[in-house]
Amino acid sequence: MSNIPAAYRHLSFKSIDSTNRYALDAARDGRAGNLWVTAGEQTAGRGRRGRHWSSEQGNLSASLLLIDPAPMKAIGQLPLVAATAVHRAISGMLSPVQRAELTIKWPNDVLWGDQKICGILLETTTLLNGAQAVVIGIGINCRNHPETTEGLAAADLLQYGYDIAPEQVFERLAHHLDERLSVWDGGDGMAEIRDDWLLRARGVGQPVVARLPDEDVHGTFEQLDEQGALIMRLPDGTQRIIYAGDVYWPGAIR
User: Which of 37, 74, 78, 197 could form a disulfide with 19 if both were Cys (CB 3.0 to 4.6 A apart)?
Assistant: First the structure.
């Protein structure tokens, strides 16, 4: 039995195609929310924008199913909520010096230095009864990693001296995400989540590139708005708000 908060159920698989897929299908089949699905490996893991997410044995693949967790306008805040929970879960296992290496890249990648150690994917579907099923998929590189992921170099905890079982990381994550969801409170507590995210963020006040489907936007990462969108200061002095995209810093893209 996993040591996770009592309000949640947990299904664990040795191998599965996708924990997100399973969680969404469970919702369509009428299963209740607050369901964690984890797997020792994924054979068809999902990344953002339809990308493949590499998930081998020794890493954590986890998805949390929530049903109607917030008004629709606040659902898009959940990746930032999850990123702060992941950061807290991992940083609590590190030495103070190494803890400083761990940051969040907007909106929800967790980095060790310049290397990606965790990815988060939010998926939603409307059920036949009109309820909104939301799945937060989280992949953490514990003991191995791909060479690159979404254009970034990747890393894992083991290469930095932390041989931590994915099951142990999951239990920490489950507790921290439960606590952060309580603070978020369906969006009413987003101001506190936003402040927490900014304390852990990579690149605030620095030059960044926002890679959008049809253009690259160059500017300075100024702030997050109240909903968690990225506010950039462009070279001409104007502001631009980025609601979705991939953000990099100069020289980071492989």
Answer: 37
- Does residue 210 surpass a pLDDT of 70? yes
Please tell me whether the overall predicted TM-score, pTM, comes out greater than 0.90 for this model. Answer: yes
What confidence tens digit (pLDDT) does each residue in 138-170 have? Answer: 999 999 988 766 667 899 999 999 999 999 999
**By the 8 A CB rule, do 117 and 87 touch?**
no
Question: Mean pLDDT over residues 164-179, rounded?
Answer: 97
Q: Which amino acid is residue 36, in one-letter code? A: W
- State the Cα–Cα distance between residues 66 and 64, nearest whole angstrom: 6
Statement to judge: residues 14 and 126 lie in one domain: yes
Do residues 195 and 226 both lie within one domain? no
218 and 190: one domain?
no
- d(CA 116, CA 122) in angstroms, rounded, equals 18
CATH of the domain at 43: 3.30.930.10
Beta-carbon count within 10 A of 203 CB:
19
Given a contact cutoff of 8 angstroms between Cβ atoms, the answer to whether 196 and 182 are in contact is no
